[in-house]
Amino acid sequence: MNAKNPPSHDSTRAPTGIEGLDRILGGGLTPHRVYLVEGTPGTGKTTLALQFLLEGVRREEPGLYITLSETAEELSAVAATHGWSLEPRLLFELVNQTDLNPESEQTILHPSEVELGETTHGVMNRVDELRPSRVVFDSLSEMRLLAQNPLRYRRQILTLKQFFASRACTVLMLDDRTSDANDLQLHSIAHGVISLEQSAREFGTERRRLRVVKMRGIKFRGGYHDFILERGGLAVFPRLVAAEHHAEYSPRANSTGNKELDLLLGGGLPPGTNTLLSGPSGVGKTTTAMACIFAALSRDAKATYFLFDEGISTLLLRSKALGMDLSPFIDRGQLDIQQIDPAELSPGEFASRARMSVEQHGSSYVGIDSLNAYLQAMPGEQYLLLQMHELLSYLNQSGITTLLVLGQHGMIGGMRSDIDLSYLSDAILLFRFFEAQGEVRTAISAIKSRTSAHERSIREFKLTARGLEVGPALRDFEGVLTGLPSYKGGTALLASSSAEPRRR
Asked: Out of 3.40.50.300, 3.30.420.40, 1.20.1440.230, 1.10.10.10, which CATH number does the structure's domain 19-239 have?
């Protein structure tokens, strides 16, 4: 399945109405089968079920929501919070409070339809009256209560499954897992199982994810997939698989907008590569990244910049002071700057935004500033580096030029990083402060490039009102990268200016 294109309608599938989930399922559910949707209260089961029914309405497939746990009024209120309107015929309250009394001798189902209680006859009559193509049964916890023992409960589920199968219904059975979490008998009965989870974090919003536990007869994307619950329903972000995405592009390097910086990199920035800009805070990493993007925008390219650390207005003002007015490019739609709050964002949603920047906005340049905020704001996320590896592989295979900003701890002398992304990077630009002639100056060096024979020299650079200025190699200095060099020659340094703008 090519995840770039939304799945087309397949008559052999029943789309769920949730695009991301349909991608995971390769198009949707197999019709006329019974599926289990499980998850603790609050994970989004009811919302998923309502989207499933409303998608059926959109396709002129009648639906029916059979509820034991909530009233029709409560369900209508839930739908209204998402901007949906439910027809009264769509909802059917299966039992009232008296029927849910565990002391009652009446059961919902028995092996023979002759022995079915009055309530079950009402359900069957309603199904036969409406002839629904899609049915939601909410929830199985109340059925356990009415069944009173595991054997009768299993028989009820099997009988219900056979009944709906005979009416050619595609059914979602919801289970809130309030009984034994290790009870897997429902898994064996259902044609497919979708499990929803949510977890609270010490800071920031809760994380939600889903997993297709099983799905008979179709190939689906396994593993966990992040999703969010917002107005309008569930938004599911399928796990990114870079191997599914390949694009044709020219490998010719593009200029950074600065001749000396191009020489330092061995010719510029080739498409399909990512460059890591690493150094202490305030040394000029962000401005250098914006200078490269500004040069690309001047060539009519499109770019997306994900900004984690500072405000958009601050970035625009500082860039304009350095001779890079980004506002016209934003107004024309060439540049999309997205302010990211990492405490509110899951890795899957961020990867989805990056994909949208490429596939919908058409960006050929993507900047991530900074990786520190993105990675450190998610200390509880396992395998985050593997997810970043998958994202960078996707961008590279799509021919995107990616700029990654990584801050290091310290200012002068030894530097360290909380994370090591050097093995993921195709090129690395290293920034350093150093002391010379009683001033704090900055140096830049390309210490890695997989695509070109880059310079091994260390050059001085500075930011002026004319933009980025890169000087000659500091060949008469030793120890520049330590921050305390010794001077052994006559290399001229770049002229200083008391009006030099602040760097970042």
From this structure: 3.40.50.300
Distance CA 100, CA 93 (A): 12
Per DSSP, the three-state class of 431 is strand
**Cβ pair 407, 280 in contact under 8 A:** yes
Residues 6+ apart with CB under 8 A from 120: 108, 109
Reported pTM: 0.86
CB of 307 closer than 8 Å to CB of 372: no
Taking the CA atoms of residue 410, residue 411, residue 413 and residue 417 in that order, the dihedral angle to the nearest 10 degrees is 30
* Terminal C-alpha separation, the chain: 43
pLDDT tens sequence across 159-212: 889 999 999 999 999 999 877 656 688 899 999 999 999 998 877 888 999 999
Task: Please give the Cα distance from 18 to 237 (Å, whole number).
Answer: 10
Quote the pLDDT of residue 381. Answer: 62
Compute how many other C-beta atoms are within 10 angstroms of the C-beta atom of residue 221.
16
Determine the residue type at 430. L
Rounded distance between C-alpha atoms, residue 152 and residue 149, angstroms: 6
Gap between the Cα atoms of 470 and 490, Å rounded: 18
119 — pLDDT class (breaks 50, 70, 90): low
Give the residue with greater pLDDT, 344 vs 390. 390
pLDDT single digits (tens) 265-304: 999 999 999 999 999 999 999 999 999 999 999 999 999 9
Tokens 């698989």, residue located:
241
- The CATH class of 246-430 is alpha beta
Structural domain boundaries in the chain: 19-239, 246-430
Residue whose entry in the numeric block shows the structure tokens 């209204």? 80
Q: 246-430: same fold as 19-239?
A: yes
DSSP secondary structure of 140-182: HHHHHHHH-SHHHHHHHHHHHHHHHHHTT-EEEEEE---S-TT
d(CA 418, CA 95): 57
Q: Share the mean pLDDT of the chain.
A: 86
**What is the average per-residue pLDDT within 139-166?**
82
Phi, psi of 364 (to 5 degrees): -105, -10
Chain-centroid distance of CA 360 in Å reads 15
Instruction: Provide the 10 A C-beta neighbour count for residue 470.
Output: 19
User: Torsion angle of alpha carbons 494, 495, 500, 503, nearest 10°?
Assistant: 10
Q: In DSSP terms, which residues pair with 401 in a beta bridge?
A: 365
With cut-offs at 50, 70 and 90, classify the pLDDT of residue 120. Answer: low
